[in-house]
């Protein structure tokens, strides 16, 4: 039986924030182990897990508890109080089925069409701009896509404000590290958006507005849980937001993808000619670039991993970035190579940028299919439908800070339709 190695230090939170996505792999390398303990968030002990076997354990509901393990600040800003992410057991499975019921073939095709059409309709606007910041332009566009897809009424005059509020909330997973400067503005953004959505839930229930059947607003407003109770209107607004705030966050993957198209010009041609290339390219963007760093949980019972025994009630984090860059799972993990997905077996435990395991019974992201669809349509647009220049700018992605960004946001200029 191996002993558990430790990153010494009474509280390594600052070190985690300083080393960012690389903190965990730096420690694994230094300590010569796959599993190690560290102290963070006020000196609390966490065991850091990494890799496929660890993901299998992490998503075993008999062994691992997720409820109550997310930092309070992240719940208050990013997900909302009582959100699906914070539920467990029967309540989770019941509400998760509601989210998954939105993922019909028709709804997935609808989000594909919305993305394609909104990008096409946006070309003229981008042609008239001196410079287009892809991060900002795509968050505005996805706010239009997301609100329309969810059946929510969003006046054109408010789209930019909603996009900004969503961006502030999404950024608040900085709060994983404890102290977080933007906490108050995140909470204010959350309140604005919750108020706006709660009003629409109430009006839908009263029959004053009529979102189309099958949309999130329609289904969430009418849904009753396994005991026959409607969601309280505030909670309904919170989980309604959880259907399209993360959709809007796909702007981060889009700016990464446009960067990858620039760095790998051969990909632009392949996007037009190679079957399934938009899919493989999108998967590689999700694997390669930094987004969610790690996810927390806690052992329910004594468990064994990599020859180490962990007691019940031990806090854990699974290293998301580390697993998507684990050399045991990915050849040359730090190389951007979409073709690696030609023969990928579709395992639910290695490509886990949006969590792993089962969609219906685990906390795995409900919107993973939507994410890939929106990415495919966006990258096809940037590769096939427009041409543009890429001016000099700071295109670095700093792995030492969470969350990751293309420093410049990814600027393009001189946009023209590709005729
Ligand atoms: C859960 C990431 C897009 C809805 C999650 C989780 C992650 C994640 C890491 C937690 C997994 C876990 O706790 O085990 C992302 C990223 C996205 C994205 C990086 C793209 C930028 C979406 C979209 C939707 C969505 C488009 C729209 C439906 C959800 C929901 C959950 C979730 C409802 C909670 C599931 C549960 O608790 O069972 N996502 N997501 N996400 N995601 Fe996403």
Report what the structure shows.
This protein is of the alpha+beta class. The chain has one domain (5-417): Cytochrome p450 (Orthogonal Bundle), CATH 1.10.630.10. It is 48% helix and 11% strand. The protein is built from 16 helices and 11 strands. It has helices at 13-19, 23-31, 52-58, 72-79, 89-101, 105-127, 134-150, 159-171, 183-206, 216-222, 233-248, 250-263, 266-273, 277-288, 320-323, 368-385; strands at residues 5-6, 36-40, 44-49, 64-65, 131-133, 294-299, 303-305, 308-310, 315-319, 386-389, 411-417. The strands form 3 sheets. The chain has a 6-stranded mixed sheet with strand order 1-2-3-9-6-4, sandwiched between helices. Strands 5-11-10 form a 3-stranded antiparallel sheet. A hairpin with a 2-residue loop joins strand 7 and strand 8 (308-310). Helix 7 (134-150) crosses helix 12. The longest helix is centred in the middle third of the chain and has 24 residues, at 183-206. The radius of gyration is 21 Å and the shape is globular. 43% of the residues are buried. The mean pLDDT is 96. Protoporphyrin IX containing FE binds at residues 84-85, 96, 99, 242-243, 246-247, 249-250, 253, 291-292, 295, 353-355, 363-367, 370-371.
């Amino acid at each position: 039986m191996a002993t558990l190695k430790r990153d010494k230090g009474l509280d390594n939170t600052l070190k985690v924030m300083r080393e960012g996505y690389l903190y965990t792999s730096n420690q694994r390398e230094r300590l010569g182990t796959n599993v190690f303990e560290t102290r963070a968030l006020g000196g609390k002990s966490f065991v850091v897990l990494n890799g496929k076997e660890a993901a299998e354990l992490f998503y075993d509901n008999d062994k691992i508890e997720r409820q109550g393990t997310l930092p309070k600040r992240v719940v208050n800003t990013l997900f909302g109080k009582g959100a699906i992410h914070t539920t467990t057991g029967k309540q989770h499975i019941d509400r998760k089925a509601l989210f998954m019921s939105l993922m019909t073939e028709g709804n997935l095709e609808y989000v594909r069409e919305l993305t394609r059409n909104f990008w096409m309709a946006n070309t003229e606007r981008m042609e008239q701009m001196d410079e287009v910041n892809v991060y900002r332009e795509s968050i505005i566009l996805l706010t239009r896509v997301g609100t329309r897809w969810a059946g929510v009424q969003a006046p054109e005059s408010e789209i930019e404000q909603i996009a900004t509020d969503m961006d502030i909330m999404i950024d608040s997973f900085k709060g994983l590290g404890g102290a977080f400067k933007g906490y108050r503005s995140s909470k204010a953004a959350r309140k604005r958006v919750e108020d706006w959505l709660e009003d629409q839930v109430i009006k839908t229930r009263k029959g004053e507005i009529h979102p189309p059947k099958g949309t999130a607003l329609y289904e969430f407003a009418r849904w009753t849980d396994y005991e026959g109770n409607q969601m309280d209107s505030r909670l309904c607004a919170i989980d309604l937001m959880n259907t399209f705030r993360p959709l809007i966050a796909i702007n981060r993957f889009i700016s990464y993808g446009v960067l990858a198209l620039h760095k790998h010009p051969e990909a632009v041609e392949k996007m037009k000619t190679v079957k399934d290339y938009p899919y493989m390219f999108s998967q590689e963007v999700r694997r390669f670039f930094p987004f969610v760093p790690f996810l927390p949980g806690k052992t329910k019972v004594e468990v064994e991993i990599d020859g180490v025994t962990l007691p019940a009630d031990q806090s854990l984090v699974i290293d998301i970035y580390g697993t998507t860059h684990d050399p045991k799972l990915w050849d040359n993990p730090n190389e951007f190579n979409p073709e690696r997905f030609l023969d990928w077996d579709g395992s639910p435990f290695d490509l886990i940028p949006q969590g792993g395991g089962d969609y219906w019974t685990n906390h795995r992201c409900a919107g993973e299919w939507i994410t890939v669809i929106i990415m495919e349509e966006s990258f096809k647009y940037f590769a096939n439908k427009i041409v543009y220049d890429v001016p000099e700018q700071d295109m670095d992605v700093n792995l030492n800070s969470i969350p990751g960004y293309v420093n410049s946001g990814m600027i393009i200029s001189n946009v023209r339709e590709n005729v």
